[in-house]
Amino acid sequence: MLETAMTSMEVPAKEMGEEVTRMIVSDIEGGADKKNSPFHKVFEASLIERETT
């Protein structure tokens, strides 16, 4: 029988939501000159290895 371990990714959902909110507010307050400007943000994620089921 082949045993496989379940894995999942843990991402900082709250931090990501807060950053998106800041970006939206900045776009609204910045006017037309700041709209559609590129933005890149990297969030740390971690791999969670689970026990074999």
Question: Mean pLDDT score, rounded?
Answer: 83
- Class from helix and strand fractions: alpha+beta
In sequence order, what are the helices and strands, one letter per element?
Answer: EHE
Count of DSSP helices?
Answer: 1
Biggest sheet: strands side by side, in what order?
A: 1-2
| Count of distinct strands | 2
Shape: rod-shaped
Low-confidence stretches: none
Proportion in helices: 25-40%
Gyration radius, rounded:
18 Å
Q: How would you characterize the largest beta sheet? A: 2 strands, antiparallel
Distance between the termini: 12 Å
Strand percentage lies at 15-25%
Strand and helix map with partners:
Elements: E1 5-10, H1 13-30, E2 46-52
Antiparallel strand pairs: 1-2
What attributes characterize this protein structure?
53 residues; 25% strand; 1 helix; two-stranded antiparallel ribbon; 2 strands; alpha+beta
